[in-house]
Amino acid sequence: MAEVDFEQVETRRVPGRFGRLFALVSWPSFLVAAVAETAFFSLINPQELYLLGEPVHFSPLTTYTLGFFGFWCVAGASSLISSWMAEKMPACADRCVGRK
Amino acid sequence: MASNPSPGEPSPGTETKRARVIPITEVAPDEGSLYAARKKIQPRSIQGRFNTVRWAMVWITQLVFYGLAWLPWNDRQAVLFHLVERKFYIFGLVLWPQDVLYLAFLLIISALGLFLVTAVAGRIWCGYACPQSVYTEIFMWVERRLEGDRSARMKLDAAPMGARKIGLRTAKYGIWAAIALWTGFTFVGYFTPIRELGTEVASGSLGSWESFWMFFYAVFTYVFAGHLREQVCKYMCPYARFQGVMFDPDTLVVSYDVNRGEPRGSKKKAREGQNVGDCVDCEWCVQVCPTGIDIRNGLQYECIGCALCIDACDQVMDKLGRPRGLIAYTTERTLLDKKPAHEGWREVMAHILRPRVILYTSLLLFIVSGFAWSLLTRTPVKMNVLRDRATLAREVEGGRIENVYRLRIMNTSEVDRRFVLSVDGIPGATIADLEQIDVPATGSVDLPAHVRVDAEALQPGSHEIHFNLQAVDAPDIRVHEKTSFLQPR
Question: Does A64 touch chain B (CB under 8 A)?
Fold first, then answer.
């Protein structure tokens, strides 16, 4: 039996806006947030934090989780701005051939 | 060349400079671009030396990951990063937040280790030990068992949705989800005691954050290993992007021997008398590649160094009765010297022993020995001393001045210990109600210490004073903490 030409029938997926955002924004900020979380909570006990002048009354796990998502949001905001600015950056001069 | 260059022409000097410019030709964006269409990669399975090594690594890493969490040690979990207690248990070692320096040590050691391995052997971390590769392999194994090998899977992808396809897909996604959930459970089990976690899961009383993180990690595993796969390595992994700076001409990389292989062509062409190399252009190396690249195009950043193309090519060469090694682990220098890939150990050592590797190795040895020395000579007791700022210095009976200190004594060993506290630095200083202090194993005790000094013995002001804590059972277990004693005016 002759082999079917699968090049014709293969599914093609185009990474869309979500894929781009995931790869360029969420993922680097996730890695940075993991590092920041480890460093921050290695040095600071979640039970000794103050929130709006009151000692935090959350369980340690809640504080760790909120901390992680807090770091992720901050790092994500930075990544988002960077990726947006990189996209808007004018085409570079002749020194960077091959890039647009 | 014209002897008198006209003003418009470059002078000979500039010409030689120009000649050194590497010509870069603009190429159309390929599928490596984030914006381009991407084919779904359905790698063919392959047997061979490197595939065996890959599977051995899957077993080793996963036995360690899934198994270690269940290993008991001194009536507790052997490896547990107890977040709520803020204590890290690693076999006999108990780390407290005060030991954060060891974490920095560990990070430096890991980074240097990665540099060293990359400089010597390229991306073997990616191909054999990275969780992304390992879980992708496990997930692909499930896929292959259910849906068949490459061509069967491609046919299934192309087939319209029917009962068989729905059944196969449901089974595949179900098994993937089960593996992902077990992985998530194990992951959380390194931060919360896994046996308690197991009981909680069984009784349905799992805490909300534990459940959250379990599902979070499970979803990550499922999406990364099941769907994103090579895209993680191609678009998301920072290591894949900066590996180039750690490579040099002596780094071991998966390479195609262009001199031997080209011009590629079938046996038929060879019989017809055409000049063909050893590559028969069977495309097996492309079909088995988990990142879907053609290694014959040279080293690419998408290559995770898994060497499955070597296994594929070796099989083809064996069938053709030609020597193996058309695609092989080799170095750029070997290829440039047009040597065969398989060399004696002398040549191998010549590649390995080079300044970069020696530098990384000596740095690594230095830091590892410092780390080991610091761990071995660690005193298993810590004491924090804080002068109680709420209680100022006051006069007590007998005309003595008293300062109050808050002490926290931490026993980082795994036996209960009794300690004796004393002070020195000021003549005649004593601790009121001095008793022996019992601190439980891996526990801590907070207590006040009332230090009294004769009023006449000191000038007004701040004076240095030392607390000494001494274990009763072991004379070498002692700590010495400096603080200040305040003499009022």
Answer: yes
Q: How many domains does chain A have?
A: 1
State the DSSP code for A46: G
Residue pair B463/B484 in contact (Cβ under 8 Å)? The answer is: yes
| Residue range B263-313, pLDDT digits in tens | 888 777 777 777 888 898 888 899 999 888 889 988 888 889 999 999 999
State the residue range of the domain holding A68. 21-51+63-85
CA distance A89 to chain B (A): 17
Is residue B70 scored above 70 in pLDDT?
A: yes
Q: Identify the residue with better confidence: B135 or B329.
A: B135
The domain of B459 spans 381-487
Kindly state whether residue A10 falls inside one of the protein's structural domains.
no
Cβ of residue B231 closer than 8 Å to a chain A Cβ: yes
**pLDDT score at A5:** 45
Average pLDDT estimate for A10-36: 76
User: Phi and psi for B54 in degrees, rounded to 5?
Assistant: -60, -45
Euclidean distance between CA atoms B35 and B418, whole angstroms: 67
SS3 label, residue A24:
helix
B473 is a domain residue: yes
What residues of B are in contact with residue A23 (Cβ under 8 Å)? 34, 231, 235-236
Cα distance from A52 to chain B (closest Cα, Å)? 23
Nearest by CB to residue B157, choosing from A3, A11, A19, is A11
The CATH number that applies at residue B473 is 2.60.40.10
Cβ within 8 Å of A, B 260-299: none
B252 within domain boundaries: no
Shortest Cα distance, chain B CAs vs residue A100, angstroms: 10
Report pLDDT digits (tens) over B164-208.
999 999 999 999 999 999 999 999 999 999 999 999 999 988 888
**Cα separations (Å) of B42 from A4, B124, B206, B219?**
15, 22, 38, 22
Asked if ipTM goes beyond 0.95, one says no
Distances in Å between the Cα of B261 and the Cα atoms of B44, B250, B278, B321 are 22, 22, 4, 15
Does the beta carbon of A10 lie under 8 angstroms from any beta carbon of chain B? yes
